[in-house]
Design brief:
The complex is a heterodimer of chains A (324) and B (479). Chain A is α/β, with parallel strands linked by helices. Chain A contains 11 helices and 14 strands. The chains are: A alpha/beta (324), B alpha+beta (479).
Chain lengths: 324, 479
């Protein structure tokens, strides 16, 4: 086991699969010579050559469309968007073609789109979004949101293996901040299986991505008040681990759904609705949501801080639940 | 714009356990003048139906809560004086400087009663004012508001699985709400034992699959041959009705009675002892006294008056029967606040007005007092003080001939005396020479139902013996 950063774990996973399977290739803006905007693929072109680490023009529709075609033809492409925000340019290829191909023609589309997402460093409205709920809403697409280095590697390998198009949301704020033990060998982390990040009895937080750490700090605050918080890291938003969520609800009966995406139409609404439908008789308090407000992400650091859920916001919501 | 100071009219506290009241009728309309202490509106709570006097003189400038609405104690109902646009009708729980001041003790209703004596002036239950129909509560219970009323889904489920009444569980949540932890702790501590345990086999942590109580292990699909017990009749869900059934809303009073009765049975270890009392001397004494009382005072010395008088005297020697378990302590007292259970309109509920310091009253005082509180109860003129602070209760369900009963104790008291029909019986008497003979004697069965946590059986027996001796050997009130 080596201690890797979240970013190194992504590189490790990608390298592992590219070494193992010749069908796997990487395409994106500046992923080759430059090594990617965040240096995930630094040194890849030297190792795998320019035909497997392809510098693409600044055209997301072409990148996603090209990957879709390659996947249909039996390759296992991995596309990198420089920022998740830019995926909107590839919407049509992704949503109309890739997502529906299996239903239209029975053809698997084993492609991965890597999406550096999330805010916290004044990236402003075009470089900070968390658009997972938009794609979770599209039948045929899968959405993966790892929070730990170990999961970053295991989930990336699972995503590459998966026969469906998978959107892999890698949180930029975790890239170099979060380190963890990562097995050196190849392993997979199944899609649709949540992880209990922290065990607790009094309140549950259902979350994913960088918010796992925000929740964890809040839980530490509450621990000193005698409130025991369980944190469930969904790991993948589509498919999502309903059984694990309901199990945690049944245990604590008080739930906070937390995400960095905006509130209205955020995936937390789906989780809250499912809890209401399937675990109503286990609730001891209304399901609470903490999410970003319904605005674009601001540039200004103080405004961005007010925008992205902070530890105090989460702790406050958890206290309300605990006291309810 | 009136220049006078605005005075709020608020829903008065009608006893510590009362949390809400229903406006039955406004006696004044907006814009009308009213004097201080003049009746302003009528309210109904689970304890009493009463008039609320105006807290001030002036113009009724605002009516904020309409007739038929039920609101929390302390809610502003209207305003005397000031400007009509003053404040929002929010819950302003300023303590009302009003005649209807809250009193500490906590009376409750007891067993139904009707005056036993046929000649009782208050014999006919007067169904006066219409029962204030359980007004449609303003809205669904808001968790932020009266937390006590809100039962969360998981608490409701646990309550029904264990047969627990959530209102009996001490709540630690917001606004006193019962949380999941509270009810689990209550169930674990055995608070729900008397009820049948949950029907669910405690197998998997699978939650309430609405599978119905299936105690058997998952039987393979076919369940044909075995002569299984007939399936339990499916309970009718609340809100549904079967053909031929009619539904009426639960009144505030009925809900109060239900809660008090349930709480009493959950609290006290009820035991009932009975004794037969020969009323020969009382019958004779009463015949004489009745004329005098009727002629001079216009009241009737009913048999209940005799029993009450003798019971109060006897209580002086049995402080625990007039006592109370209060927390970790036992409380006894040198006075008797005597509750008398009174039925209101037929089947419409009952109430226990209190005769204060009954130990200071002679026969006339008790006769007058009972007549007065019974009349007030039936005409909805009781004020909160009339129903609070009771230390011992007499219930008198013998008016229709019943000869025995087991009343429910009026919490937090320790005992309740039941009096029953006076009937002529063949009775073995012994003459002065020691010879037994059968005589026809007027007999009354009298019961004492006591809380065995505080009162032991022998102690209760001695109390009943002394009470009988006092009644059988009646020699006037000085005797």
């Amino acid at each position: 086991m080596a201690e890797l950063t979240y970013l190194q774990a992504i590189s490790d996973g990608l390298r592992t699969e590219m070494r193992r399977d010749k069908r796997v290739f990487l395409i994106g803006e500046d992923v080759g010579v430059y090594g990617g905007a965040f240096k995930v693929s630094l040194g890849f072109q030297e190792e795998f050559g320019p035909w497997r680490v392809i510098d693409a023009p600044l055209a997301e529709a072409a990148i996603v469309g090209g990957c879709t075609g390659a996947a249909i033809m039996g390759m296992r492409p991995v596309a990198e968007m420089q920022f998740a925000d830019f995926i909107s340019c590839g919407w049509d290829q992704l949503v109309t073609v890739a997502a529906k191909q299996r239903w239209r023609a029975g053809t698997p589309v084993p492609m991965v789109v890597r999406l550096p997402s999330g805010g916290g460093f004044s990236g402003g409205p075009f470089h900070s979004q968390n658009p997972e709920s938009s794609f979770a809403h599209i039948p045929g697409l899968k959405c993966v949101c790892p929070a730990t280095p170990e999961d970053a590697k295991g989930l990336l390998i699972s995503a590459i293996e998966d026969p469906s198009p998978v959107l892999y949301f890698e949180h930029k704020h975790l890239y170099r901040r979060i380190k963890g033990e990562v097995p050196e060998e190849r392993y997979t982390t199944p899609l649709g299986k949540a992880r209990i990040h922290r065990e607790g009895d009094d309140v549950s937080v259902i979350t994913w991505g960088a918010m796992v750490y925000t929740a964890d700090e809040a839980a530490q605050q509450l621990e000193s008040d005698g409130v025991s918080t369980e944190i469930l890291d969904l790991r993948t938003v589509m498919p999502w681990d309903k059984a694990a969520v309901l199990e945690s609800v049944r245990k604590t009966s008080k739930v906070l759904v937390l995400h960095e995406d905006t509130r209205t139409g955020g995936f937390g609404g789906e989780i809250a609705a499912t809890i209401a439908e399937e675990a109503f008789e286990d609730l001891d308090a209304p399901v609470k949501r903490v999410a970003a407000p319904d605005t674009p992400v601001p540039f200004s650091p103080p405004l961005e801080k007010a925008y992205i859920p902070q530890v105090d916001d989460v702790a406050g919501a958890l206290r309300e639940l605990a006291e309810y | 714009m009136a220049t006078e100071t605005a005075v709020d009219v608020v829903m008065p506290q009608m006893g510590v356990s009362v949390s809400e009241g229903t406006i039955t009728r406004w006696l004044k309309q907006e814009g009308e003048q009213i004097e201080a202490d003049e009746p302003l509106l009528e309210i109904s709570t689970d304890k009493v139906d009463t008039e609320v006097p105006s807290p001030a003189s002036g113009t009724l400038t605002q009516i904020l809560v309409q007739e038929g609405e039920t609101v929390d104690v302390g809610t502003k109902l209207g305003q005397i004086g000031g400007s009509a646009t003053a404040e929002a009708p929010a819950t302003e729980s300023a303590p009302e400087p009003d005649a209807a001041a809250p009193a500490p003790a906590e009376p409750a209703t007891a067993e139904a009663a009707a005056e036993a004596d046929a000649a009782s002036p208050a014999e006919t239950p007067a169904p006066t004012a219409p029962e204030p129909s359980a007004a449609p509560p303003a809205a669904a219970p808001q968790p932020s508001g009266n937390g006590k009323a809100f039962v969360s889904p998981v608490v409701a489920r646990i309550a029904s699985e264990h047969g627990v009444d959530p209102s009996q569980v001490p709540g630690t949540g917001s606004g006193g709400r019962v949380t999941k932890k509270d009810i689990l702790a209550f169930v674990e501590s055995g608070g729900a034992q008397q009820q049948a345990p949950a029907p669910e086999p405690t197998a998997a942590p699978e939650p309430a699959q609405a599978e119905a109580p299936a105690p058997a292990p998952p039987a393979p699909a076919k369940e044909q041959a075995p002569p299984a017990k007939p399936p339990a009749p499916a309970p009718v869900a609340a809100g549904e009705t079967l053909p031929g059934e009619t539904v009426e809303p639960i009144t505030a009073m009925r809900r109060g009675i239900a809660e008090h009765m349930r709480r009493s049975v959950d609290t006290a270890a009820h035991v009932t002892s009975a004794i037969e009392v020969d009323f020969t001397k009382i019958v004779a004494a009463r015949a004489a006294l009745k004329k005098e009382f009727q002629a001079n005072y216009g009241v009737n010395p009913t048999y209940l008056v005799y029993v009450a008088f003798a019971a109060v005297k006897t209580l002086a020697d049995y402080p625990y029967i007039n006592g109370e378990m209060r927390g970790d302590s036992i409380v006894t007292r040198n006075f008797v606040n005597l509750g008398i259970a009174v039925e209101l309109a037929e089947g419409k509920g009952l109430i226990v007005p209190v005769l204060r310091n009954a130990e200071t009253l002679n026969m006339l005082g008790i006769a007058k007092g009972i007549a007065e509180i019974a009349d007030k109860a039936r005409n909805k003129r009781l004020v909160p003080d009339d129903v609070q602070g009771g230390t011992f209760t007499i219930t008198n369900p013998g008016g229709y001939g019943t000869f025995h009963g087991t009343p429910v104790i009026n919490q937090p008291q320790s005992s309740i005396l039941g009096t029953y029909a006076l009937v002529k019986r063949a009775w073995v008497v012994t003459d002065e020479n020691g010879n037994d003979a059968i005589a026809i004697r007027p007999l009354m069965n009298i019961t004492l139902t006591y809380d065995h946590r505080l009162v032991d059986g022998a102690y209760a027996g001695r109390f009943l013996r002394d009470l009988r001796e006092r009644l059988e050997g009646w020699e006037g009130e000085e005797g």
